[in-house]
Amino acid sequence: MSIGVIGAGKWGSALAFALSEKNSVFITSRTPRDLDNFVTLDEILACEYLVVTVPAQQIADWLEENFVFKNQKILVASKGIEATSGKFLNEIYEKYVPDENIAFLSGPSFASEVMQSLPTALVINSSNEKLAQELGDLFPSFIKTYTSDDVIGAEVCGAYKNVIAIAAGICNGLELGNNAAAALISRGLVEMQRFGIAYGAKEESFIGLSGAGDLFLTASSPMSRNFRVGIGLAKGRTQKEILEALGEVAEGIGTAYALHDISVKQDLYLPIAREVYLTLEGKNPHESLKDLLTK
Ligand SMILES: NC(=O)c1ccc[n+]([C@@H]2O[C@H](COP(=O)([O-])OP(=O)(O)OC[C@H]3O[C@@H](n4cnc5c(N)ncnc54)[C@H](O)[C@@H]3O)[C@@H](O)[C@H]2O)c1
Ligand SMILES: O=P(O)(O)OC[C@H](O)CO
């Protein structure tokens, strides 16, 4: 079985490493890289399985410009909601791939720890249970995989937790303490569950690995890029300054803009996501805190 990983950033590289324990794994990216088994896009598209890690804000264009469906079985490993359209990833992919050929990866997973073969648990979410099981069997022994048919729940969890992580980073950067951090994460879980259920997600997804698990991981550690964005905002840095220093993607930014537009269009109460959006737009984080505590 051959696996083609698309995107050679932190997550693509980590998944290529992990999956190579039991499979022949090839990798490609926009720019040629000096990596083992780096191949061309055409060679990748010929693989039986594809693992896609192109960031959520870029995947629609990437698919339009590069993708050819050849009955591949696809695991989407990105997390986010497209800012320009408000589309979830499954809505972007459905134009190119039938539901029975696609699954979405979720759960608490820092790439750097996967690269160290540290114990990790992930969920493979698909309407095709057989495909989810098949993809799960590709993973190495240090990664325990579960399956779920709650694609929407997994997507909301993976995307929304990045926005809450930015808020948690702001909380940390303002040195508000552990009580505030715990309150923010707890209320953030409630907010993302409320949003997800409005889109048909299953409640149980939010108390499992995809929801509480990934939220706890990402909103509790400066290992998270999104958490570090929040710290930068608390220190009064601009988005541009923060991203230049980060040098990697922080999906919570685009998703915060997406959630803001969705909340306005659909009159949804998303207080934490709203304050993250406003802080990204230059609102003083101290003002955001006051509004969150008083409204
Ligand atoms: N790093 C992690 O710990 C981790 C874990 C789970 C999920 N993810 C998710 O995986 C996705 C990728 O994150 P990452 O950590 O690899 O980020 P990264 O910043 O390390 O790498 C992003 C990769 O995407 C590529 N890319 C950017 N724009 C592109 C475009 N227009 N066309 C093609 N390729 C493009 C870049 O070249 C780079 O290789 C994100 O959605 C992220 O949320 C990351
Ligand atoms: O570094 P982050 O904030 O993009 O988080 C990485 C993973 O999504 C954690 O599960």
UniProtKB/TrEMBL annotation:
GO terms for molecular function: glycerol-3-phosphate dehydrogenase [NAD(P)+] activity; NAD binding. GO terms for biological process: carbohydrate metabolic process; glycerol-3-phosphate biosynthetic process; glycerol-3-phosphate catabolic process; glycerophospholipid metabolic process; phospholipid biosynthetic process. Its main location: cytoplasm. GO terms for cellular component: cytosol. The keyword NAD applies. InterPro entries: 6-PGluconate_DH-like_C_sf, 6PGD_dom2, G3P_DH_NAD-dep, G3P_DH_NAD-dep_C, G3P_DH_NAD-dep_N, NAD(P)-bd_dom_sf. It is found in: Cytoplasm. Residues 150-286 form the Glycerol-3-phosphate dehydrogenase NAD-dependent C-terminal domain. NAD(+) binds at residues 7-12, 111, 225. The active site is at residue 161. Pathway: Membrane lipid metabolism; glycerophospholipid metabolism. Pfam families: NAD_Gly3P_dh_C, NAD_Gly3P_dh_N. Sn-glycerol 3-phosphate binds at residues 79, 107, 109, 161, 214, 224-226. NADPH binds at residues 11, 30, 79, 111, 225, 249, 251. Residues 34-131 form the Glycerol-3-phosphate dehydrogenase NAD-dependent N-terminal domain. Its EC number is 1.1.1.94. Signal peptide: none annotated. The keyword Ion transport does not apply. It catalyses: sn-glycerol 3-phosphate + NAD(+) = dihydroxyacetone phosphate + NADH + H(+); sn-glycerol 3-phosphate + NADP(+) = dihydroxyacetone phosphate + NADPH + H(+). Keywords: Cytoplasm, Lipid biosynthesis, Lipid metabolism, NAD, NADP, Nucleotide-binding, Oxidoreductase, Phospholipid biosynthesis, Phospholipid metabolism. Substrate binds at residues 79, 225-226. Belongs to the NAD-dependent glycerol-3-phosphate dehydrogenase family. Catalyzes the reduction of the glycolytic intermediate dihydroxyacetone phosphate (DHAP) to sn-glycerol 3-phosphate (G3P), the key precursor for phospholipid synthesis. This is Glycerol-3-phosphate dehydrogenase [NAD(P)+]. It comes from Sulfurimonas sediminis.
